[in-house]
Design brief:
single chain, 306 residues, alpha/beta, Rossmann fold, Immunoglobulin-like, 2 domains, 8-stranded mixed beta sheet, 5-stranded mixed beta sheet, 17 strands, disordered N terminus
């Protein structure tokens, strides 16, 4: 397949949500509004000093990390809503607090959801999309709402069930079409190797691989050890008329995504590679929290590649 690369980099901050707002940050923490709940969570990149200190007394949930800073517990002044539904544009997602400080949604990813939807809309043809490490499924739902037939894969049964619940919520609203999403609980590397043997191809691939984790058989996953192999397999899984591959990383140890995609896809005249740095800006202190980087490889004008 002849690939192309004209490369660009940019910082993208999502438009203000009605139901989410980064208020301020500092001293390794961030204060956010999720619906009508104000939460304080650890944020290692917020290395500056906090301002508006009196405002930090306003919160309902505070996450306290344990010694390894990966898990901990929540302290609540009042119990959070149950169910807790968050709105983004015409989408609704169920969120809930977890022991890893997350609530099931990464609001900085909204810029990727919107980009993905625009590309699928503009293709004006049926799109078969694979979402690897799909988490709770926001990207899968947005892509399916744009008309794509989506295969959502995650090694965590709990995350796939969460995605199915979010899909059920979306399907319950008459203003949205019934979403076409296939749910798969499997190790992503194992799944795509099997899809390749079956010659099952996809027009678009989204992946958000973790820095570290364990597969279904308790095998250890390390991003730096397996990423190249993962991307090579994803490249081979693309159809003869691919639309895009989009990968996000939150690892500080990972090389520049743009250069990585150039190494995988090569250069030519029929595609472009862009690198987007994700961020959130505090509405009170105006500080910008860096939130990872996304690499986007896309073809031009639905070009048929051979």
């Amino acid at each position: 397949m002849t690939r192309a690369s004209s490369s660009t980099s940019s910082l993208e901050i999502p438009e203000k949500w009605d139901d989410y707002e980064l208020l301020d940050s500092g001293d390794g923490m961030k204060r956010e509004r999720w619906g009508n709940q104000i939460l304080i969570r650890p944020e290692i990149t917020a290395s500056w000093r906090r301002s508006n200190l009196s405002e930090w007394e306003q919160w309902n949930g505070w996450f306290k990390s344990n010694s390894n800073n990966h898990h901990g517990c929540w302290k609540w002044k009042n119990s959070p809503p149950n169910p807790w539904i968050l709105h983004y544009k015409n989408f609704q997602f169920a969120i809930r607090p977890t022991s890893s400080k997350q609530v099931g949604l990464f609001p900085e990813q909204a810029v990727n959801w919107d980009w993905c939807r625009e590309k699928i809309d503009a293709a004006r043809r049926p799109i078969k999309l694979l979402n690897l490490f799909g988490y709770t499924g926001a990207a899968s739902i947005v892509a399916a709402a744009a008309g794509a037939s989506v295969c959502h894969v995650d090694a965590s049964k709990a995350m796939v069930s969460w995605c199915a619940k979010n899909t059920e919520i979306s399907n319950s609203h008459s203003y949205q079409k019934q979403l076409s999403i296939r749910f798969i609980v499997d190790d992503c590397h194992t799944f795509i190797a099997r899809e390749l043997r079956r010659e099952n191809r996809y027009d678009a691939i989204i992946l958000d691989p973790p820095c570290f984790g364990r597969a279904l058989k308790n095998e250890i996953w390390k991003l730096e050890d397996q990423l190249l192999s993962l991307l090579e397999t994803c490249k081979n899984l693309l159809s003869h008329q691919p639309l895009f591959l989009m990968m996000t990383s939150y690892s500080a140890r990972m090389p520049h995504v743009k250069e990585l995609l150039k190494n995988i896809f090569g250069e030519g005249q029929y595609s472009t590679i862009s690198e987007v740095y994700l961020g959130l800006q505090g509405s009170c202190d105006k500080k910008i929290i860096p939130c990872g980087v996304t690499g986007r490889w896309e073809t031009k004008n639905n070009k048929l590649l051979t």
